[in-house]
Amino acid sequence: MATNYTKYSQLINATTNYARRMKHLSNRIFGEVATPTNSKSMKVVKIFSARPLHTNEEIIHYYPRHVETGKLMMKLRSYGLFRDEHQDFKEEMKRLRELRGKVKVWRRLQNKEKTE
């Protein structure tokens, strides 16, 4: 003996006008696309049915670990395993400045030396 559910599913798959209207109503009730649409429209439907990005916890609470990464890179640089070209350039400019005798002296340091 067939249950009511199987009768309903057989009715939905039928090609009668009543079956088509019931399928349309079922789709509207359960939030599916009621009328047949093309693939471009289905893409829009999928985008709008997805969870909004401002409520997605993985996106909201993602902060890269800049401080830890910076310290790790400095440690690797001191071991010679990482090459920071910008820092190398700054150190080279400082070394060349020292060779020319153009070392920057902070005014606070000058004032301290005069008072001592």
List the helices and strands and how they pair.
Elements: H1 4-13, H2 17-29, H3 39-49, H4 57-60, H5 66-79, H6 85-100, H7 107-115
Can you describe what's shown?
By secondary structure, the protein is mainly α. The protein is built from 7 helices and no strands. It has helices spanning 4-13, 17-29, 39-49, 57-60, 66-79, 85-100, 107-115. It is rod-shaped and about 100 Å long. The mean pLDDT is 83.
Order of helices and strands: HHHHHHH
Number of strands: 0
How much of the polypeptide forms β-strand, as a percent range? Answer: under 5%
How is the biggest beta sheet arranged?
none
Radius of gyration: 35 Å
Structural class: mainly alpha
The amount of helix comes to 55-70%
Q: What is the count of helical runs?
A: 7
> Stretches where pLDDT falls below 50 for ≥5 residues?
none
End-to-end gap = 107 Å
CA-based shape: rod-shaped
Q: Average the pLDDT over all residues and give the rounded result.
A: 83
In short:
This protein is mainly alpha-helical. It contains 7 helices and no strands.
Main features:
single chain, 116 residues, mainly alpha, 66% helix
